[in-house]
């Protein structure tokens, strides 16, 4: 099965150094993208690609829209679709009042399956083709999450949360059951379809030292797996972790002591890192995952994205929605808030950088850039079609837009799911078939 998409193609080669850094991306104003069996087979000027396409190719003309790699969300919580928009003073109140009670419901398979259907519908509606998710503590939630990913053939990363203290009884495992059930999830789902299982201790507050030891054992046994957890989100949280692990130098050192600080480690938030922690993250190649709408919503703080990226020892960075602490499923809305956070810090996040982070940057942070995040030949055809005139107000503004960067900035500043004209997963249009 061969498809030829026509439109304006944009794909990044590396992180842009400024608005005039045209070597950092490829742009075809009348481009052709040839897809064979879900893989990008050729990319270039439309006329060139058309000439080499088979005679029976199915053509889809997406002009005047942009065609980009599918968006990647590096951190969100699958069981929190009904937690989003909860009124709380801060992280710890939000967890105890809304989040933990809601996650208890995921022990029921029927509930987990129903939410999984909605979860993937929202990802596709918002142009997110890969996401890195926390399930609940229950294996049922991971089963629902991965089976729905397989049904839709999406490349997803997820993990059964491990947590054995400081939460309601219905959300606690033990060092033994957390270890055993994570192994079962790996056996059942890792490498099936396009699934990746991540080792997922929720954070240091909800895991005892004994459970952290079990997590360390999993990390040793499965060195290729991603590890995801939370780090340095909120000052009360940081203080509490220090009391729980008095032997550690700081919060980052807690994870380092259990062998959880490495190049496949994804740390949600990491807002308030000390210089020592940033050095340790950099040396380990660990990833700090910026969740702007969540950080603003919970009043957690301003993530120093630009400062971390330009350090002598730079910290690898990903970007994410953090549903349900985050307030939008849209990566466009997310980068709009990321931009504003840098403004408050006296920094500039240019639109080319934003789109790099949502696509190739997150794929690099996941060590998956050979598969997703670009329009390179041989990679998987997960794509979005972006319409910069999706609303009357955007159409009016587009009348005065003169450059690609201005168009991208308009899409980021005013766009949401309405700007995603189509979402392709492995070469198949998925948004237009949503109910
Ligand atoms: Zn989170």
Automatic annotation (TrEMBL):
GO biological processes: guanine catabolic process
InterPro entries recorded: Amidohydro-rel, Guanine_deaminase, Metal-dep_hydrolase_composite, Metal_Hydrolase, Metallo-dep_hydrolases, MQNX/HUTI_composite_N
Gene Ontology CC terms, in alphabetical order: cytosol
Residue stretches making up the Aminodeoxyfutalosine deaminase/Imidazolonepropionase-like composite domain: 31-55
Keyword Hydrolase part of the UniProt annotation: yes
Textual note on the cofactor: Binds 1 zinc ion per subunit.
Catalytic activities: guanine + H2O + H(+) = xanthine + NH4(+)
Family matches, as SUPFAM superfamilies: Composite domain of metallo-dependent hydrolases, Metallo-dependent hydrolases
EC id: 3.5.4.3
Domain Amidohydrolase-related residues, every copy: 67-429
Signal peptide: none
Pathway: Purine metabolism; guanine degradation; xanthine from guanine: step 1/1
MF-aspect GO terms: guanine deaminase activity; zinc ion binding
Keyword field: Hydrolase, Metal-binding, Zinc
Cofactors that this protein relies on: Zn(2+)
Family, per entry: Belongs to the metallo-dependent hydrolases superfamily. ATZ/TRZ family.
Role, per record: Catalyzes the hydrolytic deamination of guanine, producing xanthine and ammonia.
Protein name as it appears in the record: Guanine deaminase
């Amino acid at each position: 099965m061969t498809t030829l998409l026509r439109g304006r193609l944009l794909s990044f080669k590396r992180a842009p150094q400024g608005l005039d850094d045209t070597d950092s991306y490829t742009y075809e104003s009348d481009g052709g993208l040839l897809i064979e069996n879900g893989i990008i087979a050729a990319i270039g000027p439309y006329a060139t690609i058309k000439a080499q396409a088979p005679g029976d190719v199915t053509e889809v003309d997406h002009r005047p829209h942009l065609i980009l790699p599918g968006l990647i969300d590096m951190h969100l919580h699958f069981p929190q679709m009904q937690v989003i928009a909860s009124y709380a003073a801060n992280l710890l109140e939000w967890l105890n009042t809304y989040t933990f009670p809601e996650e208890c419901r995921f022990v029921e398979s029927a509930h987990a399956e129903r939410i999984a259907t909605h979860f993937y519908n929202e990802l596709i509606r918002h142009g997110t083709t890969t996401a890195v998710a926390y399930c609940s503590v229950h294996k049922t939630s991971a089963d629902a999450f991965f089976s729905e990913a397989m049904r839709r053939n999406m490349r997803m990363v997820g993990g059964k949360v491990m947590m054995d203290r400081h939460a309601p009884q219905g959300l606690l495992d033990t060092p033994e059951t957390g270890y055993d059930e994570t192994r079962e999830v790996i056996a059942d789902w890792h490498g099936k379809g396009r699934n990746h299982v991540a080792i997922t201790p929720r954070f240091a507050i909800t895991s005892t030292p004994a459970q952290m030891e079990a997590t360390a054992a999993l990390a040793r046994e499965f060195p290729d797996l991603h590890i995801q957890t939370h780090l340095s989100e909120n000052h009360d949280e940081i203080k509490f972790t220090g009391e729980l692990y008095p032997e550690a130098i700081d919060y980052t050192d807690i994870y380092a002591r259990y062998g959880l600080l490495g190049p496949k480690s994804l740390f949600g938030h990491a807002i308030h890192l000390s210089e020592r922690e940033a050095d340790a993250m950099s040396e380990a190649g660990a990833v700090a995952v910026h969740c702007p709408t969540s950080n603003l919503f919970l009043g957690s703080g301003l993530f120093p994205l630009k400062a971390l990226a330009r350090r002598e020892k730079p910290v690898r960075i990903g970007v994410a929605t953090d549903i349900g602490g985050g307030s939008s499923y849209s990566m466009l809305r997310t980068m709009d808030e990321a931009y504003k956070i840098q403004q408050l810090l006296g920094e500039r996040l240019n639109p080319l950088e934003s789109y790099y982070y949502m696509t190739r940057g997150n794929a690099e942070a996941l060590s998956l850039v050979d598969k997703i995040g670009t329009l390179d030949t041989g990679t998987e055809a997960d794509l979005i079609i972006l319409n910069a005139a999706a609303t009357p107000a955007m159409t009016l503004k587009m009348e005065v837009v003169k450059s690609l960067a201005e168009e991208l900035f308009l899409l980021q500043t005013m766009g949401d799911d309405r700007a995603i004209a189509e979402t392709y997963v492995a070469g198949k249009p998925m948004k237009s078939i949503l109910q």
